[in-house]
Amino acid sequence: MLNTDLQSYEIVILGAGFGGLGMGAQLKMRGIENFIILERGDRIGGVWRENNYPGAACDTESHLYCYSFYPHLRVSKMYADRDELLRYLDAMASRYELMDHISLDTELVRAQWNEEANEWDFELGDGRSLKGRFFVPAWGQLNRPVVPGFKGLDSFAGQYFHSAQWPADIDLVGKKVASIGAAASAVQYVPEVAKVASQLTVFQRSANWIMPRNQIVFTQQELDAFERTPDLFMQSRNKLHAFREDGYARTRHGTDAQKEGIKMAMAHLAAQVPDEALRAKLVPDYEFACKRILRSDDYYPALTRENVALETAAVAEFTPEGIVAEEGKRHAFDVVIFGTGFASQAFQGDLQVVGREKQPLHSRWAEGAEAYLGMSVPGFPNMLMIYGPNTNLNHNSIISLLEIQQRYIIQVIEGLAHSRQAIDVKQDKFDSFNDRLQTNMLSSAFSSECSSWYKNAAGKIINNWSGTLDEYEVLTAKWQSDDYNYLS
Length: 488
Ligand code: NAP
Description:
By secondary structure, this protein is of the alpha/beta class. The chain folds into 2 domains: about 5-145 and about 345-485, FAD/NAD(P)-binding domain (3-Layer(bba) Sandwich), CATH 3.50.50.60; about 155-215 and about 225-340, FAD/NAD(P)-binding domain. It has helices at about 20-30, 45-50, 80-95, 185-195, 220-230, 230-245, 255-270, 275-280, 300-305, 360-365, 400-415, 425-440, 470-475; strands spanning about 10-15, 35-40, 100-105, 110-115, 120-125, 130-135, 160, 175-180, 200-205, 210, 295, 310, 315-320, 320-325, 330, 335-340, 350-355, 420-425, 485. Strand 8 (about 175-180), helix 4 and strand 9 (about 200-205) form a beta-alpha-beta unit. Helix 1 (about 20-30) crosses helix 11 (about 400-415), helix 5 packs across helix 6 and helix 11 (about 400-415) runs parallel beside helix 13 (about 470-475). It starts with 7 loop residues before the first strand and ends with a strand. Mean pLDDT is about 95; it is low at about 1-5. The protein binds NADP nicotinamide-adenine-dinucleotide phosphate. NADP nicotinamide-adenine-dinucleotide phosphate binds near residues 182, 185 and 341.
């Protein structure tokens, strides 16, 4: 159980999702015990706790979507479903004895740098306060669901909810259902909803580039072999890593790899959707990889079912009965699902983070979030973010990047173990890093014309990393202590 008497910690980690739990595990591996993980939910798991919609699964290969120090040796499929990923995180928390460090149902409302004490003061939602020398926010980028403010939505007499807030007791059998949104979450729940609803209408504002997924279910013999010889698992992981790194070229303007990606996606569409009119609606009108490239084998077939319709006219308004589309067509619905994504831009959400000279992080980031190596911000000493600005990946596993960041953070913590100094990243290092990143972004498909959660309102990419994962690893392999000013 958490020792609630102990109110001062060496390290305060925010969030018990993949990022925070991996940080905790790596600290334990180094024999560092004086840390707490604050989690507002009632269980660990982060986005995998929150997203419990039918069909929720990972579209990154399982051998990559786990930590190298804790390989998911008995994962049953190449694309694991949500429950299996939660079980992996539970097992990891148990293996590294993390539960004693985790405070569930604990919301952090304010983190403020204390200039005199050279440490962070934390206020919790229940009125308790804590202190910590290092602040490691692992707050995620996709946990604030957005339901657009459609005209008349309040008048709708049926039930509506966001895909990440799927009601446990909802029964869609025989119902007339709408999905607003047709992206990563929708391509997973649409095939499941289509199986039970009497009628499903998918409102698609933009089509997506969708690649085949090709699920692999491991045999008992394969699983036994991975467990007996983890090197076999690691060989598979290394191959997938190399394959995914090659895929980075698909995210760059006009490359042969991008052309090849387009060809594969178009062939997948042609193979799965025989109807020409439907197929035409499913061809994206923007550059390949501008948004996340999706992987699905059952989304297109679901759209070809008798009881499923694809609506490309925009939603004009809601009425008590349902939706009026822009061209005037009226649809009646019992249930509307909003697969409309997340507020991905304000990383800190409602949390108030206040740095040196009482500067709030939200004003530091008024023009868009930025960080040095995705981890530090000048004026916010000893704050080291996991999955911060410009660290999301389109082409490779985010778990590999989180692991790299955790190793860097451990170097900082160990490097400062014998002093009470704090580090504050140098402004010129921060500026030149971000200038290089944004220059590199100009050749990326992420910066081309499309709506995506990678961009802020001004069109600047603030969520994604601009290079390969290997490049990120080289940049962060060794903590460069000269990149920081020292406060004592
Ligand atoms: P999303 O990618 O942001 O997509 C939101 C969808 O809602 C898009 O189709 C968007 O259309 C539509 N939309 C938003 N506002 C709308 C409006 N006012 N009117 C009509 N349509 C509207 O959200 P998501 O599908 O939840 O996925 C978010 C991210 O979560 C993914 O990119 C991925 O990183 C992660 N995710 C991962 C997995 C996995 O397998 N690992 C699974 C699910 C999600 P436009 O495209 O036109 O904007």
